[in-house]
Amino acid sequence: MTIVEPLNPRERLLMGPGPSTVPQRILRAMGASTLGHLDPQYIGYMDETCQMLRDVFQTDNALTFPVSGTGMAGMETIIVNLVEPGDEVIVCINGVFGGRMKDNMERAGATVHTLEVPWGETFSQQAIADVIARHPAAKLLGIVHAETSTGALQDLSGIGAMVHEAGMLLAVDTVTSLGGHEVKVDDWGIDAIYSGTQKCLSCPPGLSPVSFSARAIEKMEARQTKVQSWYLDVSMLKNYYTGGGGRAYHHTAPINMVYALREALAIVLEEGLEARFARHREMHLLLREGLENLGLKYIPTESLCTLNCVSVPEGIDEAAIRSRLLDEYDIEIGGGLGVFAGKAWRIGLMGHNANRRSVGTLLAALKDCLG
Ligand SMILES: *Cc1c(COP(=O)(O)O)cnc(C)c1O
To answer: Of 11, 51, 134, 158, which sits with the fewest C-beta atoms within 10 Å of its C-beta?
Structure first.
């Protein structure tokens, strides 16, 4: 007989780049009885989940559903379905996740033209207009709304119109913005979008909400080649998620994760989108004031509210401070990623955690650690 120690994870305050702290209400929803993936009761829950996703994405797109997998699976879903080998595409890179988009597009066989600005900066409308003009044959432009590696918030207004004018599609990463910053899929002319559950929706990791416009569906339907990924092929997934052609089995939906997402979206909509964005803004300003009082400087020119990226002062061992926060205070924050490795801290104020208690607790702990 084997005796396995009972699972007893500590109750950490998760204030890094994700996952964020999950409220008990969502964990309880996850523990509800597992149904079959074709059970009418489950299909009902799933349909409600997709409808709430439309509300949070602010879209009427019929093709809106949670991909089985984390945010990166959403990125791959968008790319493998919309890009065909030989397509020219444009990717805007100002951090790690723009870089991953490029890598994924190349793996899908695209010729990638990049627009790059230094990490921490964002793209001007003029720079985007220029890159579109330089590559008129491109079929899609990919951009990150909330670049979690640098904490930069990209203004997306006006980009959709420029991209469409040039006959291209707009693909956007909103993994760290959905549920914390305004995301308006229809008003902003976004054709393909993905997000994640474990950031501003305060749900455990495991699903990636996506949505596709009519333009995107047209491009997918006109494909000459099969989508190289069987698991992420939207032409097959859409029957199950939208009911067109019947609810055919493709893969077993992660039932209990969908319960969790349904509960997380209910929490978002009960609070109301505007109130939720205002709360994130207010808590960001409170944190910002506290961090700046500790002498810490923000790195990005336009900071996200949901992810606060600050420089580590000279002579400080950033990893040692993070270890102390974790060991002595049960608080997790993130270190720098990519070019900011060892040089930055990334502090998340995502969903459930964007509150005074979390901000106050972290500031007090950080102050102690910094001496
Ligand atoms: C976290 C994140 C991802 C990847 O999500 P995973 O859930 O880790 O797969 C993609 N893009 C951005 C901007 C992110 O912050």
So the answer is: 11
